[in-house]
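Translate sequence into structure tokens.
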Amino acid sequence: MIDRGSAPYVVALVLALMMTFLWGGALFQPTRFDELYHLLAARGWLETGSYQIGADGIYLRGAPITWSVAQLVDLFGEHLAVARLTALIPTVALVLLGGWWLTNRFGLALGYTWVTLCILSPFLIEVATFVRWYGLMALLVGIFFASVFEASLPESPRRYRLITACLLLISTVAIALLQVELLAPIALAGILVAGRNVLVELPRATVFRVVAVVAIIGAIVLLGLLISGIGLFLWGRYRLVVPWAAEHANSPLFYHRYLLLYYPTLWPLTGVLWLIGRRLAPNLADSAVTIAGVGLLFQAGAGLKATRYIAYLVPWLNLVWALGLVGIWQYIKELDLQWPTSALARAVVAASLAFVVLGNAASVRALTLALGITVPPERPPADWAGTAEVLAPIAKEADILISSSELEALYAFGRIDYAVNHSLYHEVTLRYPKEPIVRDRRTGVRTFEHPRALQEVLECHQSALVVSDVYRWRDPGKVPDDFADLVEKRLVELDLPPDSNMRAWQWTNPAPNSFCPPH
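Result follows.
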């Protein structure tokens, strides 16, 4: 029999085991494209002392992540699960630190409910098992807003405010180094949270004057940005669209659909749960809903959209829900329920609230991630490594290797000369002049504007190997139809296992052109 004194420790143990199973299992998901930037650059760091990719590429974005990957790989070997520890550690730290803070400041019920929601969050599991900076960003944003909240409370001691101010400064600098674009919504939400906590204690006339001054300063800053042209530049960055993301660029309901899919029992009731949560902790509930609301509106209007982009907001949305659920629990406990025993009544209420959380698709999604089960619209992974083994003799003899995925080809084959990738061409020419063939300085790989450039390159070589997964082939944002038509008509397709989800073609040309432009 578990007594009340040991119950919190038992719950903590259950949550720890649940996190270990779900998050640990998800570490072994198939490779995702952007992860390979850090893996390949880490390999270059260990071999050359620079973040080199391929023969002459250099990848500097997220250098602290790449450096961390290199150290882990050097210690434990080059395994994807090892590299993913760079994302897992800060995301786990976010959940542990957040649970500790909420438990100590607002009680066990809130802390444990919030931790449960975070452990079952597909958004957080995704960034915790993704070699990128999103897990670290979620941790830094959590520290930023917790510091703003604590520093702005009128009752906070002066020494406490100095500590939180230091944490605030450190987290702000770190966020700017990782992804400076996020400073705009984070700063706005931080100002609103601080303003809510400070102004609520002031007379109404003073509040009006402060708001008016802030509004005037904001209008002056906005006008200055527009006149200088910086505003238009920032707007262009905010609304940036690349071919792979064009489908959802103008879809403000993108995140709403995912939240509704994962949390049909919680997302539609967010407003109600916020109001209920205000009964428990009004300043915390208002702060959490402000942070989540401002951030979601900002991300909904951005040109680039992906579920990992809102991971830094999910802990605060979970906090709104956790406050509401705990508020419901406490309210029902106060009712005089005429049941056989009060213990049974509490058990039924607890089970009902648990079902509200566990009955969501998010819980199922967390389980499928841990077990490696593919759920539509996901598709089975392409076997780049197995294909590289099958095609190794041909790849070794080929003059050039062309692929739809420059990073996966580099990782699997160890080489690539050209990429057929419409989205990559668009990204490169955002910064550099448009030419028939352009070079991506991150990887050193060259890519084509149109099929004529591909044809010219093929005519200049005796042999070539073209490799692609089936998902990028004839995808308008990756390998458009005109490129695919050229390859399928002029090259010979090679046999690959159907379950590899890969395709490959071989080019042979006994009499290559003698005069070819340098690329």
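Note: DSSP finds 24 helices and nine strands in the chain.
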